[in-house]
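Same chain as my last thread, 207 residues:
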Amino acid sequence: IPADIHQGDICRHGGKLYVAVDVSGQVPLKGRIDVYDEDLNFVKRTSFKRAADGIVCLDGILYVGLGPASIPGKPFRGNYFGKFDAETLESLCEPFLVDHGYDCSAGVQNLATDGVRIYANFYTPEPDTPCFIVFDRNFNVLDAHVFGWRHGLDVVGGGEGGAVCFAYLTTIGWMGQKEKGTPPPQALVRYAELKDGKMRDISQFIS
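reply #2:
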């Protein structure tokens, strides 16, 4: 479907798809939520002043990343979040700042949930900086993990022994698209699990 600007993250609720859209070049409304039905027909949208990135729905509430508290590209420890009613798209609170305890270098890449916790994925300035943060629904930090940069993430169900399983995307050659003669970027689907306080790749066990 046509996309006039950057579509950052997506979630599904009640037979609809919700897309967090960054329209930073359009002042003063820098972010929006676009809603589609499952045939990808446009349904409605709402716009707001802060940029949008990660999005997830938990118990009928859309939790949306609303951009960093500092300049992108510089390490910082704060991101804004908002809550919206999934049916009306009305804002349920003013944007609030969450200090997730570790430096990152951009907004929230993805938000996901298992119905209890919220999982957030960030870009980080250093390879050994935790970028995968586990929150409760009040955005208290429950756990943090070093798991590399990921360009797509969602919960795909529970595993054995209380494990939470994820599918994630990592891109191949995504910077090479700017160079002549290089193939277009591709997405590699991989799998991971969070179990006993540890995050690990389990792609080799998926057939």
